[in-house]
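Lab meeting tomorrow. Please check the following:
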Amino acid sequence: MITLKRTKQTLIIFLLVSLMPVVQLSAQQTNNLYSQTSEMADAMIQYDADKASILRFYSTASSENFFMRQQGNNYNSPERRKRLLQLIDQYLDILKKSPFEKWNINGKVDYVLFKRNLESEQYQLLEEQKTYDQVAKHLSFSDKLYELQKPRRRGIAVNGEEVAKALNEINKEIANATKKLKSIDSLETSQANLASDAAKGLQGIMKDYFNFYNGYDPMFSWWVPKTYSETDSLLNVFATAVKRKGKVNTLQKDDGSGIIGNPIGDVELRRQLKFEWIAYTPEELVEIANKEFAWCDAELLKASREMGFGDNWKAAQEKVKMSYVPPGQQPEAMYDLYKQSVDFLKKHDLLTLPPLSEEAWGMYMMSAERQRVSPFFLGGTSLIISYPTNTMTYEEKLMSMRGNNPHFSRATVHHELLAGHHLQGYMTDRHKTYRNFATPFWHEGNALYWELLLWDMKFPRSPEDRIGMLFWRMHRCARIIFSLNYHLGKWTPQQCIDFLVDRVGHERANAEGEVRRSFTGGYGPLYQIAYKIGGLEFMALKRELVDTKKMPIKQFHDAILHENSMPIEMLRAILTNQNIGRDYKPSWQFYNK
């Protein structure tokens, strides 16, 4: 009886303790809940995990390449593509059944953007499938190779002689398919690339298949190696041959610049703008850039006159460029600019700077090779300094020093560290980490916003400083103009380079590096326009909330970093607590100059 009584008491205490967090949450209402999560967080986390499982399981990378297999960073086979589409349909159905109308604005925004992500992934997979269907006749051997892989995933024993016989027949098909390619004039570039990737994917799964059995299954090891080696070689020959059949777009030919990119055209530009929640056409964005350029021109002339050069702003800019520091002293000069920038942020109490964010950033020097695509310093977890190395020619050294002078760098040190990219990374690692809505319009736009804000707050101390900051402001306007014109098929890379030299005042080598970075550096087509356009969005949001006294400036800046990266119109929906619907679409006309 005593034992039973104690058991009951223990059970009662356990129930009371287990209920305590619920009572506490009710008392705090939902403040703590929405500081880190929303009603959509669980589904989003589950989707990311489910997708990662599918990418790993249906991988076309060899099991030896563990990193690629873990990341799923390889070709989408028809099998994997189909499974991913099924997963997307499953989660779109979950969204349809969710009680959206009852949710907080955080959950509603997460719903809208998660749905956007799913539909974009679905679109891209279906486009892939359309392209694959167009080249499937050239890959008649692929299904037979995929079928070999299926039993291997569960370790099913195989008959080595039968495997060798099957591979021998498949090898004849691959050789025949390669031979037939000679009678084809050309394929669309996307078709040729996908067919080549498919062959390489088949190489990956066959290597995985072979390595699983070879050396462990005696009869497999006796029968298969020689025939498998032929399969691998034939797939490689096919992949190379079919890729060469891709059409060469006239805009992708070398125009003398040595830069060969991939202009995406008007239709895809508009689709990507919609995805990024930008309610403007490419032509309207170019018009905005030209208006901003005109403002820069006027300010540049003011600074030039103050320096005694009249309207000859290029002469004034030339003097500023010659203010570079001697070799070996650039890191210390950049650190001094960093301290000035942080002191300014603190003096005006503009945002919260966690002590560790100030402590834990590094500093490195950029290699000469990397400076070919990144002629100016970069930032994030570390400040990566671009300055001449001993391997550069005399002219290359001079252009690097001139382009990285202290007045130019004054405009960007806060862009790269605090309160820019370093602080962004620090905060997004700690707040609402389930959100996978990363966009350069937030990432680069917010860093650029600090350049615009600090200009307005008189951070530049002299006309030389203003010319340095205006150089970068003009540069970001130029990025919108040259990158959109390039992707619309209106400009060549060489025209883009000349525009940067003549209109902004770039050193030619730096202009070449900038254009090379824009079109061959692995950045998305909208990345270069995201700096200025994103910065203008943040400035418009500041005018709406801070300038009207609806929110203190420090609270505004802290709130941006606590919501994690997302399209800025959707951040606006959260900060203004808008009543949005399930099918909310981009509509914000933020530019009113």
Notes: The two ends are 83 Å apart (CA to CA). Residues 40-247 form one domain. The longest strand covers residues 362-365.
